Description:
Among the domains are: 100-247, no CATH class; 488-547. Strands 1, 2, 3, 4 and 5 form a five-stranded antiparallel beta sheet that branches. It has a three-stranded antiparallel beta sheet with strand order 6-8-9, with helices on one face. By secondary structure, the protein is an alpha+beta fold. The longest helix is centred in the C-terminal third of the chain and has 39 residues, at 437-475. The protein starts with a helix and ends with a helix. A hairpin with a 2-residue loop joins β13 (518-519) and β14 (522-523). The protein has helices at residues 3-11, 13-25, 41-44, 50-53, 57-68, 70-79, 83-86, 88-94, 106-117, 161-182, 191-205, 208-221, 263-284, 317-331, 335-345, 354-369, 378-391, 398-417, 431-435, 437-475, 488-512, 524-547; strands at 125-128, 134-135, 139-146, 151-157, 242-246, 251-252, 286-288, 296-298, 304-306, 312-314, 346-347, 395-396, 518-519, 522-523. α5 (57-68) runs antiparallel to α6 (70-79) and α5 packs parallel to α8. 58% of the residues lie in helices and 9% in strands.
Amino acid sequence: MAIGRIRKATRHIARYREIFSTLVRYGLADWASRVDYELAKDLLQRQAPPELLSLSTPERIRRALMELGPTFIKFGQVLSVRPDLVGVALADELKLLQTSVTPDPPFEVERIIEAGLGKPLREIFSSFEPEPVASASIGQVHRAWLLTGEKVAVKVRHRDIVQMVNTDVEILADLAGLVEDYVEESRNYRPRETVAQFARTIKREMDFNREARNIRNLAEDLAGEEGLKIPAVYEDLCDSAVLVMEWMDGTPLTRVGELNLSPDETRDIARRGASLYLKMIFVNGYYHADPHPGNILVLPDGSLTLLDFGMMGRLSTRMREYVEDLAGAIISRDSERITRVIVKAGETPQNLDETALGLDMTEFIAYYGSMPLSKIRLFEALNEMVGVIHRHHITLQAEIMMLIKTLVTLDGTARSLAADFNVLSLISPYHERLGGAGAYLRRRLTRASRFYDEIAVFADTAPPALADIIERLRRGTFEVHMEHRGLEHSANRLVFGILTAALFVGSALLLSFKVPPTLLGLSVLGLLGFAGSLFMGVRILWAIMVSGRLE
């Protein structure tokens, strides 16, 4: 194991053992037997209980993540958005992960608020409820009243959460590196890249200043939207660990039955909520990315409001073009065009069988294209498409997977209000925008403009660079620097093998010429050298057998 990994393992040895113990108990540590990991050797000898092994693999993974705490639960929630990486079955299971954390005691909450805002609690709030109304993995929410009388929600980051997350992310990165190095079949899932993306995501979520900006930006985008209210943020009372915003007295969609609404009124709420999200996605390109029923409230006047702005989606210009191309291809039922867009928008393996991918997409279009729009279930269609992409080991951009996850959640939320409601029924206003001739022409003009800009940049930078290369060649100062990657183990074994062979040959010569001192007519130095070369030869063969690789 590399020296850096040894240092990290030593620094977090208790947490490493806790993680391995949990993985072993749930039968999820088979991969570790391929790794020379001293910290876990004794744990790997244990057996998982039969009652846990009887569960499906996705369920065992979910339970293990729940047991390992907030960081791993968050990691599972991030993976639930990536069915292209982990498969639809595991992604669906990970969607069941719920975070409910024991809240911090009142004195700790007061200390964090005062440290963040630089004032005693009594100088900020006229009243502050010490018992939280909710406590999740990153923080907890309290109800309070400002000195000026406004009722506010105060979100406070948990104590020591930053240190705990940093430790767990460091361990996850270490484990991801080990898995990717030693478990060849894991490389299609890109463990290192996935953990790096998760580290960026959770560190953004822990910064409440960023969430405050998210709320402000969304409020600006949706200003004037009828029937919608975004909570105001008190920016002078916000910090990376404290967020103060307007309290919204409303009923979450999970309890909409308490309002005693008629079926038509409930359907109208589903329609307004779905229309709002489609506008955010396809018009603004910036959207609230977690539309589950608990995050959408119905206010007393019938307006809607949103909660929890830690996870926001944004489509770059290029990604919006891909999404529009894909939607246009689906609307026009062009399977070849769908295949081209997927290949352009994703990272494909070297051995991708485009013919097989095209056949799968043709079958997909044939099945869903023959259905009336009212009969298509959006979440089923999207999950099936992602399943095809996963089967061909294609990895889509995180922006697109966030969008797919949002649409699937939105469809489920709308159907929880009205079982026969279909989000696709609201897509008509966007049909021309996504698949019409005008949209096609607009995308072509945008790409032509971007191509011209790129050519202009190239024309500005290429001639001086070429002139510099020619001048270096003329002077004889042109240098080429080469870097090898992943050859350390091969070089070490090569040198070790050469030394072993040299020692063996030298010992054979000593024995042949009976170089003194001798014992029973044999050179003692030759015997010692022969024994040493034999030990070294066995050692290198053992290393090759353990790794399963000859390089």
